[in-house]
Design goal:
heterodimer, A: about 350 residues, alpha/beta, 6-stranded parallel sheet, 4-stranded parallel sheet, 10 helices, about 30% helix, about 15% strand, B: about 60 residues, alpha+beta, Dodecin subunit-like, 3-stranded antiparallel sheet, about 50% strand
């Protein structure tokens, strides 16, 4: 059966009911990948702290590159294995660094992942979290140049994909963190995480993903199951290394020399939470006339089709319904044929 | 390079079609810096008779 390449987006840091926590959209991604035969999604969907999973029908693509794919600027090339380098923020305490290095060794020893080398930044990245996280978590790093320099050095050493581990402020007792852990709020650090990985994607053009380095956190008996994957280990690095281990190469377009696995012109649909239609990939998809499948998935935004009136937007109640829509698109079945009442075909007239 | 997190408010006039909205936003953001991350986080219909919509964009820019 033909595939129907589909982009699956759960924007980072907007408190999505599904996908706003610790890899809790991963089962959904597997479902949509099965329905489409080819799903392109980003680390926020796939990374569940210590937990993650590979799927031969899923391309793991960092958000900045995902936007560029939707815009038609890049294509993807499947690889059997990436040679991963890790950038550690020099602000990380030595014991936490040692824990992360053991995780990298474990991924080599137990999973057969090619983690090649690591580098500690020359200056601390210095995370600044935007305190106004009521709608979308955000923030910046004070020293972006030191991050880029470290990435350049690793690429010169031969790595083909980059994991970044940044030291985040110890805010384990903050109201935002506690609300998030209990499943009620926006992930307060997700926005800065996106900025860090976007910088590597933008300036170095290699597959990348980020894991935060956090101090051990006190037990919370009221922990929401969706946040639980971040509580079962000392680091969040395993899911990043698993995702990057065979993430596709980024191929700049136009390009006639590389063997391309997925060209942007093949993409047929974008699945996105209802209310989150304001991202670059969605707007690029609208420019190309793609199917936008807008799924009810409670979040903090209200950027809906009420303001766009885009005709190729399909609103569904849940991801199970979205999977059915994708399967129908993949099989070339008219969606209206499955709905009732079924209207008679339209009569057309010659234009004078 | 220095990063800044900014809220940008734009009027989206009816003369800008939906398929040109992304380019319209990018053109405006690039006047303020190199764009690292952005998204529309709010839209409001204007009360004027021109049909202009009000956009709120959250962006991270590099300078």
């Amino acid at each position: 059966m033909e595939i129907s390449p589909t982009i699956f987006i759960v924007p980072t840091g907007i408190g999505c009911d599904i996908g706003g926590f610790a890899g809790d959209a991963l089962p959904t991604a597997k479902l949509l990948a099965s329905a489409s035969g080819c799903l392109i999604t980003h680390p926020n969907v796939m990374n569940g702290g210590t937990l993650s999973e590979k799927d031969q029908n899923i391309f793991y693509v960092e958000g900045f590159c995902l936007d560029r794919l939707a815009k038609g600027e890049i294509a993807l090339k499947s690889v059997k294995q990436q040679k991963i380098g890790i950038i550690f923020d020099s602000g990380i305490k030595s014991e936490i660094l040692a824990r992360h290095l053991q995780v990298a060794d474990a991924c080599v020893a137990t999973l057969g992942i090619n983690v090649h080398s690591y580098l500690v930044t020359q200056k601390p990245l210095k995370i600044i979290i935007d305190s106004d996280s009521s709608k979308m978590s955000c923030g910046i790093i004070e020293n972006p140049d030191t991050l880029i320099e470290a990435g350049e050095c690793l690429i010169e050493k031969g790595v083909t994909a980059i994991a970044i581990v940044a030291k985040f402020p110890d805010d384990s007792d903050s109201p935002e963190t506690n609300i998030y852990r209990e499943g009620k709020g926006v992930d307060p650090i997700a926005g800065v995480e996106a900025v860090i990985s976007h910088l590597i994607s933008k300036f170095l053009k290699v597959p990348c993903a980020h894991a935060p380095a956090l101090d051990p956190i006190a037990l919370n008996e009221n922990l929401d199951p969706r946040a639980a994957a971040e509580e079962i280990g000392h680091t969040f690095l395993p899911s990043v290394l698993i995702g990057l281990s065979n993430a596709p190469d980024i191929v700049e377009l136009p390009n006639i020399n590389e063997l391309i696995s997925l060209h942007p012109n093949q993409i047929e649909s974008i699945v996105v939470p209802n209310g989150a239609l304001g991202g670059e990939a969605v707007l690029a998809g609208i420019e190309k006339g793609l199917n936008i499948i807008s799924v009810k998935n409670k979040n903090t935004l209200k950027v809906t089709n009420e303001f766009y009136h885009y005709p190729n937007l399909i609103e569904v109640n849940n991801y199970l319904e979205a999977a059915g829509i994708i399967l129908a698109i993949r099989k070339g079945i008219n969606l209206n044929s499955i709905k009732r009442p079924l209207e008679k075909i339209e009569k057309c007239y010659f234009i004078d | 390079m220095k990063l800044s997190s900014v809220d940008v408010y734009l009027d989206w006039p009816v003369s800008i079609k939906l398929k040109n909205l992304r380019e319209f936003i990018i053109t405006n953001l690039e006047q303020k810096g190199d764009v690292i991350r952005w998204s529309i986080v709010d839209i409001q219909n204007s009360i004027d008779s021109f049909g202009t919509k009000k956009l709120k964009i959250k962006a991270v820019l590099a300078n």
